[in-house]
Every structure is written in structure tokens, then in C-alpha cells.
Amino acid sequence: MSKYFDLILKNANCFTVQGxxxxxxxxxxxxxxxxxxxxQENGAECLDLSxxxxxxxVIDSQVHFxxxxxxxxxxxxxGTRSAVLGGxxxxxxxxxxxxxxxxxxxxxxxxxxxNGRCWTDYAFFMGxxxxxxxxxxxxxLPGCCGIKIFMGSSTGNLLVSEDEWIQNILSKSxxxxxxxCEDENILKENFHIAQDGKHPRFHPKWRSNLAAYNATKRxxxxxxxxxxxxxxxxxxxxxxxxxxxxxxxxxxVEVLPQHLTLTDEVYESxxxxxxxxxxxxxxxxxxxxxxxxxxGTVDVLGSDHAPHTIEEKNKEYPNSPSGMPGVQTxxxxxxxxxxxxxxxxxxxVDLTSWSQTRIYGIKKKGRIAVGYDxxxxxxxxxxxxxxxxxxxxxxxxxxxxxxMKVQGWPVQTIIRGQLxxxxxxxxxxxxxxxxxxxx
Length: 439
Prior knowledge:
Elements (H helix, E strand, L loop, with lengths): L6 E4 L2 E4 L2 E4 L1 E5 L2 E6 L9 E3 L4 E4 L1 E6 L12 H10 L2 E6 L10 H11 L6 E7 L7 H5 L4 E7 L12 H10 L4 E4 L3 H14 L5 H4 L2 H18 L3 E3 L5 H8 L5 E5 L1 H5 L4 H5 L12 H13 L4 E2 L8 H4 L16 H10 L5 H16 L15 E11 L18 E11 L2 E5 L2 E2 L13
Parallel strand pairs: 1-6, 2-7, 8-9, 9-10, 10-11, 11-12, 12-13, 13-14, 14-15
Antiparallel strand pairs: 1-4, 2-3, 4-5, 7-16, 16-17, 17-18, 18-19
């Protein structure tokens, strides 16, 4: 008796747990039920993906969608729309909204806002604070992907700058904690550099290598003292990578496409539109980041999608806000690096899906394997496109990569067996659901 599937994906190169192979995928009730050579007659619907490559659905574990409080920059609908147009199937959204996500009520409000409006699957971070809370209870709430700590001030008002409060959070939580590592005292001491310079080229001098390194070193000491695993976000310096390579048993590492693609020369052409925290640095640090990607020190690629309007970014530095969009461009920018020989396709998959599943304990996502959610990022590795502001779905309306030609492009996004994007066009209505975790 033949099996029945809701959907069959045929004739593509599929990146399964066995590696890249030309094989069919059978999907039933949103789950992968068979990976083999499947007859077309067994499916209610069949997609012929000849010439394309099916990757596990890309998980972007660091986005800022600004809702509630700053919906003029972005909201959950527009942010997740950008995501699926870029081939991303799942997002983890950050807590520095207005109000910040620091309570059960604030998390439930975000989940309510997300229901029926998100194109991707989703989860939300709880923001760490300098308060004595039951952190394990908060991080275990449905829809929460963990706790995020800001050791240095950035967008929003979340700041945990003192070691005792960082230790308080780590000692009372069980899940891996995500941390923005910049030393607040050094940032305060150096702020005059930005004020006097009045140009974003001074941004990496204000938010210096030492500010990043010192915070990361402090965090690792606390992690050791509490025997608690941490995830160090958007690492930018050679010194941090050397230190983190020696602490892989307790720390996982994220880098961003921005820091792998742009160098400090971009401040002269983009000005404040290149301003982000931690900063874009020089080519010496960028080379160290690539070395860490290639030798396995880096675990995750995230976009740190952090949009601001053109009007806001046009303010005089340092009154201009830090952050840039990136969720829609993560896949094409990094596939361009794959095509340029900077990293393998296998490594790309590891950095965008498999590692997120491992680090955060995501259930049934991140792999093309029987029993997993049928989340797929379908790409054309040979397709060349020019990234442009006009193609961006984000409310902010711009990208730092405007005018850049890339090779490798997301052409379809499939979430739990449903085609939600095909060749730049949205299909149907938002179907996003809350991500489930192994607690």
C-alpha cells in the first residue's frame, strides 16, 4: 500500500543529516515523514525543485522587531515578513522593547501580539535585570527562548552592568544565557571620544576592543564560578575570539554577517548607517572572525536585525541610534561568502540551523530528518541578484548592502510543510507558531 503525503519535494539537492544528496522529501501534517525516492502519485501536491538546494530552515536567533513601543521602525508582522522573504523560518526576538520583556505579563503580551501576525515561527527572550527574580521560572515560560543580558548600554533601558547581578541571574537559571558583552564603565569613560569626534568613524574607538574584551572576560569568570553555560552574542574582536576558543566547554559564540562583510572603511561611505553595537571594526579583526568561523570557535550566525528609520539614522553622531536591519539579507550575504569560498555549505547549515537547535534546546527543528518539522530554506546557489533598498520589506526601508551584487539567493521558504514564500512573493497568510523547547 502506498503512503500518502500532503507535499512531496522532488529533484532538489537536499542537505540532510547525511550531507548533500539528491533525494525526495515526503511531508505529512507539517512533519517530515520520509526521505527517499518517492513516487509523485503518492502526494497531494508535488514541488519540482530541480536545480535548487533544500537547506534546513534557517533560524535567526537574534532579531529586534521593536514591538511594542517602536512600531514605526518595525513590528512583528513586518519583521517576520522580511524574514520569510529572506528564507528565514524561525526567529528569536530580543527583549529591549517598550516596555521591556522582563515579566510574565510582558511575555504574554508579545505572544498575544504575535498570534496570527507572524510569518515565521517565533520565541521571545526574557530581559535580565538587576533585580532578584525567580529567573528559572521566567525562562521556562512557554514561548521564551531564554534570558538575554546587556552588560553594556545599547538600544533600550535594559542594563546589567555589575558582576553580582550577572552572577545572580546565572546562578538562578538553568538554560544557556545570551549576553551582549560591552563593559559599561569603559563605555562611559570613552564617551567623550564620540562627543568630540562627531563622526561614526569614532564609534569603534568609543566602544573599543577593550570594552568588548573586558566584558567577555568578566562574563567567562562568572560563568565558571556558577558553572553556567553562556552564549556570547555578536563577537567582534580578535582578542575575544582567542579567549573564547579556550572556553568552548562553557561558552558558545555568535557572529554577524555585518562584521564578516563590512570593515571600518564603510563609515566613510555609509556614515551613521554603519553604526551598530558592537561596532564594525577593521580588517584585522574581521580576519580573526573568519578564522574563528573556519576553525569551529563560532557556533552561530545571527542577523542582529535592529532597524531604525532613515530620519533617525540621519541624526548627527553620536545622537544617532545604533543598529541596522539584517534578517532579510542574512541568507544571501552568507551564501555569497559560500560561493566566494569563505565557508562551506555544510558550515553555513551548521551556523544557521543545527547549532541553534543544540544551544537553545529547540524541539523538532534545525535538521532535515524524519520526525522534524518540515521547515526548509530553498536556495538557488547559482542565482545572482543585486540587493537593494527597494526590495526590503522592513519598515525602515534601507539596508547597508544596497547595490551589492551577490550569488546565492533564497527562492522558497517552507514552514511546517506550507509554502509561505516563492520567488520573492508571499503566499497565503501568516502561519507562525510558538517554538517549543526541551527544558
